[in-house]
Amino acid sequence: MPVPIEAVIPFAVIATFFTLTGSGLSAVKYYTNDKKPARYGLDYWESQMMERDRRLTGSIRGQSVNPVAPPEFSINSVWNLEKPRNH
């Protein structure tokens, strides 16, 4: 049974919008990831190392070759977000 010509135009519109959406999402992921492929299946160790890299360089994917951490690395810990309780 042939496809009616009236069905081709809506199908093309739907296929075009799916393609544009997928390509746009892929491009946004790529550029927000410092122009590197996205990471999948991260374990706890990799998440910790990504957090450390973010604190050292300001970017999740950035890495530093300096053997000594900058001075602000000691005070930008995630634990400083909690305020101490006064009993």
From TrEMBL:
Transmembrane segments annotated in the record for this chain: 12-31
Organism: Umbelopsis ramanniana AG
Name recorded for this polypeptide: NADH dehydrogenase [ubiquinone] 1 alpha subcomplex subunit 1
Subcellular localization: Mitochondrion inner membrane
InterPro entries from the UniProt entry: NADH_Ub_cplx-1_asu_su-1
Membrane topology: Single-pass membrane protein
Lineage: Eukaryota, Fungi, Fungi incertae sedis, Mucoromycota, Mucoromycotina
GO cellular component terms given for this protein: mitochondrial inner membrane
Keywords: Electron transport, Membrane, Mitochondrion, Mitochondrion inner membrane, Respiratory chain, Transmembrane, Transmembrane helix, Transport
Family statement: Belongs to the complex I NDUFA1 subunit family.
Function (record text): Accessory subunit of the mitochondrial membrane respiratory chain NADH dehydrogenase (Complex I), that is believed not to be involved in catalysis. Complex I functions in the transfer of electrons from NADH to the respiratory chain. The immediate electron acceptor for the enzyme is believed to be ubiquinone.
